[in-house]
């Protein structure tokens, strides 16, 4: 099983400006002034030595993650603008398919890619929204109503179903079992754990963890337990999350590290980036979290040679693929 990030930016799409691209190119050329390039591959090797902020971006599309499992049916978390990039990757004549879209919640950044999801316009396709918000169908239809969008929901010729359950319910897609947890977020949100055989990938975005997260028995430690991959809302710095942005419904990099270490998560992927930060600023916050992870693991274990968790901490970016 693996996860593919199609959209990782929080709140709204945040395309890189021409000025920012120019600065990245200028810095990269300056950094290469003593390098010798004979083949194009030499340039690729040089680019690999640069931080991701210098040769790419963390912020482009809004929330959309594909879960690739041993099934012909497609599985997604959220329908932000990343869903459109997935649709483009299918090419001009995609074959008929079934798409499962697990919705964390209905804020715009988590549904706004759906009107641009071309498989929805093709007869024969089947799309099933799974989730917990009673207003899911209304919200999906409403964002396509005039005067806000030129094409009505009714123009979509795929079969579109809404599988809305009561809190606490689980789902199954083929051999993938999906357990769920209600999260703290304005209007509520839900996290999803996808399990196939012994592998587990958890998508937990738009979820605030207040001071109670440090209590023994905090339910998310149990939900995240031994996950192979945890995709976690780290929009803020710890200072922001605990002060001026308290109760805004998002978490931070430090809490991501602590909960992952306590739950023995193998790979932590920090997701839902703050659009107001530059790529370099997001990387700086991440570096602090990496050093805190070593310190926190020492606090957790009383003697050396204990394994540390998470074993990998990475920032999500569009195009990142993570094997469970
Ligand atoms: Zn969001
Ligand atoms: Zn939200």
UniProtKB/TrEMBL annotation:
<dbReference type="InterPro" id="IPR001279">
    <property type="entry name" value="Metallo-B-lactamas"/>
</dbReference>
<dbReference type="InterPro" id="IPR036866">
    <property type="entry name" value="RibonucZ/Hydroxyglut_hydro"/>
</dbReference>
<protein>
    <submittedName>
        <fullName>MBL fold metallo-hydrolase</fullName>
    </submittedName>
</protein>
<dbReference type="Pfam" id="PF12706">
    <property type="entry name" value="Lactamase_B_2"/>
</dbReference>
<feature type="domain" description="Metallo-beta-lactamase">
    <location>
        <begin position="75"/>
        <end position="273"/>
    </location>
</feature>
């Amino acid at each position: 099983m693996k996860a593919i990030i199609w959209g990782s930016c929080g709140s709204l799409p945040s395309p890189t400006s021409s000025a920012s691209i120019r600065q990245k190119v200028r810095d990269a050329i300056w950094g290469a002034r003593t390098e010798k390039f004979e083949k194009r591959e030499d340039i690729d090797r040089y680019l690999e030595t640069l931080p991701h902020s210098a040769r790419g971006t963390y912020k482009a599309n809004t929330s959309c993650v594909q879960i690739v499992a041993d099934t012909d049916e497609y599985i997604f978390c959220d329908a932000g603008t990343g869903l459109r990039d997935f649709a483009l990757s299918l090419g001009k004549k995609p074959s008929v398919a079934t798409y499962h879209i697990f919705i964390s919640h209905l804020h715009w950044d988590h549904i706004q890619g759906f009107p641009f999801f071309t498989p929805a316009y093709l007869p024969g396709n089947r799309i099933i929204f799974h989730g917990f918000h009673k207003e899911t169908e209304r919200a999906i239809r409403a964002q396509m109503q005039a005067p806000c969008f030129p094409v009505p929901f009714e123009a979509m010729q795929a079969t579109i179903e809404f599988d809305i359950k009561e809190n606490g319910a689980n789902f199954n897609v083929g051999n993938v079992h999906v357990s769920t947890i209600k999260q703290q977020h304005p209007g509520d949100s839900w996290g999803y754990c996808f399990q196939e055989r012994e592998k587990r990938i958890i998508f937990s975005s738009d979820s605030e963890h207040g001071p109670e997260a440090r209590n023994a028995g905090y339910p998310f430690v149990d939900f995240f337990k031994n996950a192979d991959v945890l995709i976690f809302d780290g929009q803020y710095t710890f200072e922001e999350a605990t002060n001026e942005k308290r109760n805004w419904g998002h978490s931070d990099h430090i809490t991501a590290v602590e909960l992952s270490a306590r739950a023995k998560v193998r790979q932590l992927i920090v997701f839902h980036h703050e659009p107001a930060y530059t790529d370099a600023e997001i990387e700086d916050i991440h570096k602090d979290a990496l050093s805190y992870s070593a310190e926190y693991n020492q606090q957790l274990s009383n003697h050396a040679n204990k394994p540390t968790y998470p074993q990998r901490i990475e920032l999500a970016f569009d195009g990142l693929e993570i094997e469970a």
